[in-house]
């Protein structure tokens, strides 16, 4: 079947099998491999992305269910690729950097996408709010303490307007180009 999804500001038209998971569509069709697969059973949260502004586990959704939707992945959170003089990381990415919120980094994209959803709804969360929001995201390395600190850092250092709209951070927000993938 053919689907049309706006991913990180770009409209994509793709031919997918009915059974294709959203995470496989992002990773295998669009080569957006920042979204990770940890369990494939909706347990770990590594595959979290935003669909129409809401954090979802992309291993639990079919690509077909995202037809007509707007999807943001971790690649859409910085206004560039994190390199170069004009690049700028999303406040949450800065927070994880500043507070050493990662070790191996496998869980980090999912943690950041879940945290971005939290800060959109609750720009000044308590430690308890943060820990509750992360209950569907598993980290095998850090003990969570610095992840919580990283999210608090982002909440303290940046305006809710920027946090609320990841597309303000992307280069391709105005892109109308339609890219076809098969
Ligand atoms: S890979 Fe989706 S929740 Fe673990
Ligand atoms: S930093 Fe390794 S799983 Fe979280």
From TrEMBL:
<dbReference type="GO" id="GO:0051537">
    <property type="term" value="F:2 iron, 2 sulfur cluster binding"/>
</dbReference>
<dbReference type="Pfam" id="PF00111">
    <property type="entry name" value="Fer2"/>
</dbReference>
<dbReference type="GO" id="GO:0016491">
    <property type="term" value="F:oxidoreductase activity"/>
</dbReference>
<dbReference type="GO" id="GO:0046872">
    <property type="term" value="F:metal ion binding"/>
</dbReference>
<keyword id="KW-0411">Iron-sulfur</keyword>
<dbReference type="InterPro" id="IPR051452">
    <property type="entry name" value="Diverse_Oxidoreductases"/>
</dbReference>
<feature type="domain" description="2Fe-2S ferredoxin-type">
    <location>
        <begin position="1"/>
        <end position="77"/>
    </location>
</feature>
<dbReference type="InterPro" id="IPR012675">
    <property type="entry name" value="Beta-grasp_dom_sf"/>
</dbReference>
<dbReference type="InterPro" id="IPR036010">
    <property type="entry name" value="2Fe-2S_ferredoxin-like_sf"/>
</dbReference>
<keyword id="KW-0560">Oxidoreductase</keyword>
<dbReference type="InterPro" id="IPR001041">
    <property type="entry name" value="2Fe-2S_ferredoxin-type"/>
</dbReference>
<dbReference type="InterPro" id="IPR002888">
    <property type="entry name" value="2Fe-2S-bd"/>
</dbReference>
<keyword id="KW-0479">Metal-binding</keyword>
<protein>
    <submittedName>
        <fullName>Carbon monoxide dehydrogenase</fullName>
    </submittedName>
</protein>
<dbReference type="Pfam" id="PF01799">
    <property type="entry name" value="Fer2_2"/>
</dbReference>
<dbReference type="InterPro" id="IPR036884">
    <property type="entry name" value="2Fe-2S-bd_dom_sf"/>
</dbReference>
<keyword id="KW-0001">2Fe-2S</keyword>
<keyword id="KW-0408">Iron</keyword>
């Amino acid at each position: 079947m053919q689907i049309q999804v706006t991913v990180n500001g770009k409209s994509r038209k793709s031919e997918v099998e009915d059974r294709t998971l959203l995470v496989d569509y992002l990773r295998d069709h669009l080569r957006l491999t920042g979204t990770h697969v940890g369990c494939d059973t909706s347990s770990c949260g590594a595959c979290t992305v935003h669909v129409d502004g809401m954090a979802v586990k992309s291993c639990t959704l079919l690509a077909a269910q995202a037809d007509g939707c707007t999807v943001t992945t971790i690649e859409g959170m910085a206004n560039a690729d994190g390199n170069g003089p004009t690049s700028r990381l999303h406040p949450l990415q800065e927070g994880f950097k500043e507070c050493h919120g990662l070790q191996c980094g496998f869980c980090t994209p999912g943690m950041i996408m879940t945290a971005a959803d939290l800060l959109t709804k609750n720009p000044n969360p308590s430690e308890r709010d943060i820990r509750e929001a992360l209950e569907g995201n598993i980290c095998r390395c850090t003990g969570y303490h610095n992840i919580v600190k990283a999210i608090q850092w982002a909440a303290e250092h940046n305006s809710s307007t920027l946090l609320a709209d990841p597309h303000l951070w992307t280069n391709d927000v105005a892109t109308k180009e339609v890219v076809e993938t098969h």
